[in-house]
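Protocadherin 10b
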Amino acid sequence: MIVLFLLLCITDGVVSQIRYSVPEEAGHGTFVGNIAEDLGLDMTKIASRRFQVVPSSRTPYLEVNMENGILFINEKIDREQICKQSASCLLHLEVFLENPLELFRVEIEVVDINDNPPSFPETDITVEISESAVPGTRFPLESAFDPDVGSNALRTYDITTNNYFYLDVQTQTDGNKFAELVLEKSLDREQQASHRYVLTAVDGGQPPRTGTALLVVKVLDSNDNVPVFDQPVYSVSLQENTPAGTLVIQLNATDLDEGQNGEIVYSFSNHISSRVKDLFAIDARTGRIEVRSEVDFEESSLYQIFVQAKDLGPNAVAAHCKVLVKIMDVNDNAPDITFSTVTESVSERAAPGTVIALLSVTDKDAEENGKIHVEILGDVPFKLKPSFRNYFTIVTDGPLNRENADSYSVTVVARDTGTPSLATSKSIKVQVSDENDNAPTFTQPIYDVYVTENNVPGAYIHAVTALDPDVGQNALISYSIMECDIQGMSVKTYVSINEETGYLYALRSFDYEQLKDFTFMVQAKDAGSPELLSNATVKVIIVDQNDNPPSVIAPLGKNGTARQPLPRSAEPGYLVTRIIAMDADDGENARLSYSIQRGNENGMFRMDWRTGELRTARRVSTKRDPNQMYDLLIEVRDHGQPPLSSTASVFVVLVDSVVEDHRERGTAKSKETSLDLTLILIIALGSVSFIFLLAMIVLAVRCQKDKKLNFYTCLTSDCCLGCATCCSRHARARKKKLSKSDIMLVQSANVTGAGTAQVPVEESGSFGSHHQNQNYCYQVCLTPESAKTDLMFLKPCSPSRSTDTEHNPCGAIVTGYTDQQPDIISNGSILSSETKHQRAELSYLVDRPRRVNSSAFQEADLVSSKDSGHGDSEQGDSDHDATNRGHSTGKLSVLDRLACHWSVRCGNGTKLVAGANKQTIHSLTGLCLPAPSPHRPDRIPPSTSSFYLFHLKVHIRVFFRIGLLSYECSYLCIHPCDCLGPAPSVCVYAHVFWKATWSALGDEPTAYEMSHV
């Protein structure tokens, strides 16, 4: 009958353990148990998860059906053959499932059956006893042997019923039974010289089995004294692996008799085991017990040796003692490592903790010698995890990267704690399988490809290369060109790419004059799953070839021949004409040289080979120059390889004067389509001047209309593009004066009103006493509407020493002194103190006018040829600031000038800031001027308290085929005005400046300019 024991232990690596019991001698095919069912496994997943037996645990006695998990006996089991007399006889079987890895330990206990009777070593046992032996004397008998264990082992001995002897059955320390024959009644040899009895050994089986032997007791004549040992039991310790011949113990027994009756002989008792006789030997004369062969602690830790001493006299009676030999363990066994299962490969994407292998470690030694420490050598991304009992699992300890290491040699070392320590190591090789975790990478992010024009279509031009550290399909790269348009056509009509090699080919012949370069993207994509890709930029640069001859574009004439007059009075060096040629090529291929090839045999002309200017080399002579006309052939040659050239015919006609020649050709000139250079310049200047005057008229009309308005508004939308000042347009009479009640002081919310302080203002020596501590800011702004022009009128801020609230007529400047920072007004609302720090950039700009020394308006600003407001002021301009911070004295930086459009600082320290955006500010044109000086009455009257300033700049460039015309015009007007009244029609100070520049091809620019104040 089969008994099932199931023990479940949830551990790491070994999930469960199950135990079965099976009787020995069971036949082939005997059912032991259903492993899968008893462990609660899903029967449908056994095959897919590869249910299998660990090879190292296989045994010929058992077999497992891998389809249904049934365990059965494959071969009859003889417990006595497998386990000898071991109390426990276990067969071990290990099975596991994959995905995930689960290990199951199966223990099969072989249950002993009473299939062996006890048996004696000999069928006849002879014991000699002296007739003088006293009752109670004990005589050990040879023990019977029963290979069965447990309850089936030897239990007791019996002897035939008699009047002289009885048996005393005793148990050894190892559990074995032995019998001693005890004399119950004195013997008399003369009456009975021998006694015969049947000695029976009985086991404990059901039913019990027996074994018998004939016990013959011979009665001997008496020997008066029996040998006596020093002590009945001896105890000795012996290290294992002690070499043969080593003394175990020296026994000593004495006999009071003399002669042969006192001469003692030592020997092992009859009932000791044969194994003891194999391991130990005794000297019969000396009683010296020695090691015969090495003892092994792992075999047995204790041996019992029964020794008898007998004299040589007649009827000798033996004395007995017991020697207990305790074997001491020596660290003579290194740990043993056994790998139960090993995963062949692991994915580089495997999560930390993935099981790689299962191993067990054992050591046959005991105690400290049997304690084991297990570790993995080296810096590898694996670690050991204790599992069940002496089992360990090797798991991943971090991310794996096949590109860094495609395999690992994992060495496990097991070391015991004995002295000296013994160690064992075993290695396994773990392959890291590739995952597509690396995109192809181009060797260069940008490829510059140089292709000479006029190439052959289909020609190889370059190769792009991408590398992928993956392997296999994951590293199989294909190249492609990303779609884009070049001059309205697909890039794939220009170039192609070999998808396997990355070679680039030109699909057409390139022309440098039509296409100098183009850029496209190439893509490298691997064949992994999912696909990974990367891009690189390819810039194809067409290299110019000298494939275009020079083309003469001037002078032009009929039928390719130009006619040029030459006065007879021309001095040497007189410019007859200038040959202008162009070459569609580039670089050296377009660098031209000019020369006279024909018609200058008498050396009348010379040609500048660089500029193409044809000049006279000498005066006209009647003798040397009898002809009225010179037919010159001019060659224009480039510097390419090989060089290309073109020619032009020029007829030079001798005339008395150029005017006569013009009269003669007046009719022909009217028919030519090209305009004279002077005429082009006159038309261009006239057109620009007309546009400028028209703009001035429109602005003047608009300004006059605005002055006639009867009310002002302080809405931020009417402010000049974020300028700091705007007029309060309360309904009032045009020339109504303001009272103090109309003035309002704006202070911070935290002002208590106590303690006022005057802000110091620097004093300039250029003013009289009535102008001290005054700072003026003049500005003009344009509205966001391009079609309109809004004019701004500003009054200078008059300092006020009073802390009373006053109302400014313009409604934009707040006066007063306090210890607190006045609030900032932006777009008509007061900013809180929390937002003041956001205006840090404006703070020093607003404070700038107070620190700038008042001086006369610097004339250098008015005649400066550079713009004021775009960062290009000259060194001497008032807007120049070498510190870039605006802290210079008497100078205004570009930043100050821009700030003028959106900030105003009154002389008494009060700030007012309007929120204009800087992008708009940069588009404005204006000036921030110092206060008027009484020393320059011819420019700005000192009595004038308010000023209107208008500044307009125009810059126009017109491109022609033969040159460039540039025109600049500037108009500045300053005159007094009244915020409540119209502006006067006459400027107190006006400055008009215009400049025209003509740049012909190859010539130095020619400038015409005019300035009027």
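thats it. Confidence is low (pLDDT under 50) at residues 1-14, 666-675, 709-948, 977-988. The CA atoms of residues 119 and 211 lie 5 Å apart. bye
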